[in-house]
Amino acid sequence: MLYFLCGGSSVKNRIQELRKERRVTQSELADAVDVSRQTIISLESGRYNASLLLAHKIAQFFGKQIEEIFIFDEEEML
Amino acid sequence: MTDLFCDGCKAKNNEEYRLVLKKRQRRYWYLFCAGLLTAALGAVLEAIPEERISGRQTAFVLGLGSGLCLGSALIIWNIRRVMKNEDQLKERRLKEVDEREIEVRSRALQAAAKALMVMLYVLSIIGGLFVRELTWVCGLLIFGFLVSFALFQKYYGKKL
User: Fold this and answer.
1) What global pTM score does this model have?
2) What's the gap between Cα B27 and its chain centre?
3) How far is A33 from chain B (nearest CA, A)?
4) Is the ipTM of this complex over 0.85?
5) Chain A nearest C-alpha distance from B103 (Å)
6) What is the rounded end-to-end Cα distance, in angstroms, of chain A?
7) Residue A36 is nearest to which of B12, B94, B103, comparing CB atoms?
8) Cα–Cα distance for residue pair B75/A72, rounded to 1 Å
9) Is the minimum CB–CB distance between B99 and chain A shorter than 8 Å?
10) What is the pLDDT of residue B8?
11) Which residues in chain B show pLDDT less than 70?
12) Percent of chain B at pLDDT exceeding 70
């Protein structure tokens, strides 16, 4: 099964970059997308990958497309 | 640690979550009553002479009942306290609905299930040397776990 070979961080994201660009704190972002601040910290550090629903909420918050924020690393998957 | 009746609620705001907690509080009242009945049964068993019934078992029933009563009373008190404070209510709601927390709980449960299986396996081998019945009990528990796992896998396979 392919997914046993997958690394934990096959999806990279630009959350921290966009958040700092817009001067939004982790708590503010967490409040806006209805998750805990710890989840934002884990997302930014790449320890946790967001679900499609959360990715959609984050993309909506920043006014961008999902693929502009979450970068799917195909090479790492293979 | 989230409570016993945390079943993955999908409350979107504090008001919805307050309703979930109210329902849950009712379930803890039922648990409190079950504990009270168990403790009462323990008290009745206390009256029976020790030659006819094991004193240790009576103490166990009494302890189990009072433990359930005390535990559920504490949780009910905690739920009431949280419901009065909006910040604490939000914090607790996020702890339950946050997808990362759900993943953490799910992985912890999986790990605990594996640890339980290993413990039962070891207990069935080592404990069986001293008490033969232990091997059968542990074996049955492992068998029950594996059968229920297979059944739930089939159920959720159709459901999802």
Assistant:
1) 0.74
2) 12
3) 10
4) no
5) 10
6) 12
7) B94
8) 44
9) yes
10) 64
11) 1-8, 50-51
12) 93
**The token pair that represents A6 in the structure block:** 């997958």
pLDDT, tens digit, for every residue of B57-92? Answer: 888 888 999 999 999 999 999 999 999 998 899 888
Residues pairing with A71 in the sheet: A12
Contact B101 A53 (CB under 8 A): no
In one-letter notation, the amino acid at residue B99 is: E
pLDDT band at A3 (very low <50, low <70, confident <90, very high): very low
Task: Yes or no: say if B120 and B142 are a contact pair by the CB < 8 Å rule.
Answer: yes
Type and span of the H or E element at A11? strand A11-13
Residue A50 forms contact with B (CB below 8 Å): yes
Tell the burial category of A53 from Cβ atoms under 10 Å away from its Cβ (0-12, 13-18, 19+). exposed
Tokens of B123: 């207990």
Determine, for residues A36 and B101 on separate chains, whether the beta-carbon distance falls below 8 Å: yes
Residue that is written with structure tokens 């019934």 in the block:
B53
Over residues A46-55, the pLDDT tens digits come to: 999 999 999 9
State the alpha helices, DSSP H only, in B4-131: 14-47, 55-84, 86-97, 99-130
Select from A27, A29, A33, A38 the residue whose CB has the most chain B CBs within 10 Å, as the one to mutate to test that interface: A38
Residues paired with residue A11 on neighbouring β-strands, in sequence order: A72
Q: Does position A1 have pLDDT exceeding 60, yes or no?
A: no
Structure tokens at B135: 């091997």
Q: Which two tokens stand for residue A50?
A: 């967001």
Which amino acid does the sequence have at B57?
Q
Q: What per-residue confidence (pLDDT) applies to B117? A: 93
